[in-house]
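Researcher: Go.
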Amino acid sequence: MIMGWGVLITGLCVGSFLNVVIHRLPRGLSVNDPKRSFCPHCKTSLPALQNLPVITWLLQRGRCRNCQAPIAVRYLLVEVLTGVLYLAAWWFLPMESAILAIVLFTILVTVTFIDGEHQLIPTSWTTAGSVIALGGSLLVPRLLDLPGLEFDWIQESGWTGLKVSAIGWVTGFGSLLMVVLLGKLIFGCLKLDFKEATSWKLQEGYEDNEQLHFLIDGEAHSWDDLFYRPTDHLVIQGHGFKVDGKRQQAREMQIRRDDLKIGEGTWRIEDLKSLEGKATKVVIPREAMGMGDPHLLGMIGAFLGWPAVVFVIFTSCLSAIIAALVARVGFGKPLPYGPFLAFGALVWIFGGSQGWIWYFEGIQSGFAP
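Model: Structure:
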C-alpha cells in the first residue's frame, strides 16, 4: 500500500513536469530555462507552494493567484492521468514490465496533449521511446507478452524479444507511412479559386492556437498545418501584396515556412511585421497525415509487438470516427490522430489484448459470431 502511494505521488509530480513540457516544447521554449514554472498569462514565476500537483489547481479554483487568469483544466488532467497510469502499471504488470510501461505512458501523455493542442507530435520523444523499447526487449523479453496472453512465439530470450520489438516498430511505422504517402498523392494540395479578389493576411495566433496563421475567406490555416516538410510552399496569385505595409508589384507570391518570395525579392518570415493582399487563386499544401503519427505507432509497436499495431489501428480509427460524429471533432479542421493511437495502446495494455486474441481464436474454432 505504501509503495502504491509512492508510485501515485511520483506520477502526479511527473505529470506536473509534463505540463511544463507540453506548454514549452511546441513553442520552442527550453524546459530548463527558466527552471521554475510560470503563469503563461502574467509570466509570474511560481514558488514551490503554488506548484503542488493537483492541490494547487483545486485550492486556487483553476486560477492564477497573481493575475486571476484561468488555468486550463488540462493541467489538472495531465497530473491526474499520469498518476493513475503509473499506479495502474504498478498494480497490473510485473515490476520490470511496469517500469518500461511507465516510460511508454509518460511519452503517450505528452504526445497526446501536444498533438491535441498543436497537431504536432515531437518525434524526438517517440524516437527516444523506440530506442528504450528495443533496449528493454533485451532485458525483459516478455514485456510484449502481457499477463494472460502467453504468446508461444515470444520465448524467454532477449534476442527473441528484440526481434519481436523490431518487427513491431517496422509494422507500426511502415503501415502509417503508407497512409502518409498515399494521402500525399490524393490530397497533395488544395486549390482555391475566387471569382472576386479575396482579402488574406498573416496573423500571429488564432483562437487558442498561438502559431502564425494564414487567414483567407473566413478560414484560418496554422503554420504547422501548412508546412509539414521544408519543400512545402503556399502559392498566392492576386494583387495588392503588402509587405510591412509597402505595396509590392507582382501577380504571384510563394510562402514557405521560413521565408517568402515575390519576384526576385525574398523576406524572412520572422522579420515581418505584417503581410497581406488580395487573392484570386491560392494553392495550399496539405496531406492526409503528418509524419509524427508513423513514428508514434512505430514506438507503440516496439513496446507492444505487431499484434498490438493491428489492434491499435483498428481501435484508433473506430474511436476517431466516434469522436468526429459525437463531438464533431475534425469537422472543418484537421483531426489530431495521435491521441487516438495512444488510446488504442492503453486499451491493448489494460484488457483489450486479451479480448482481441479471444475473438480471433474464437473465429478459428468456429464459436465467434
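Model: Residues 62 and 72 are 7 Å apart (CA to CA).
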